[in-house]
Amino acid sequence: MYNGIQKIEEIIEYIESNITSEPDCEAMASRMMLSVYEFRRIFAFIVGCPISDYVRKRRLSLAACEIMTSPDISIKEIGERYGYSTLSAFSKAFSEYHGFSPSVCRKDSPEISLFPRPEFEWKIRTGENISFQIISDTAFSIRGYSAFSDHTDSCCCEGVWNDFYESGADRALTQDLIYVSYHNNDGMVKCRIGERVCPEDSSEDSFVIPEGKWLSVKLNTTDDDAVNRKYNSILYELLPSARLHRRSGLPTVEIFPRDMSEDNFEWEIRIPVEKE
Question: pTM of the full predicted structure?
Answer without folding.
Answer: 0.83
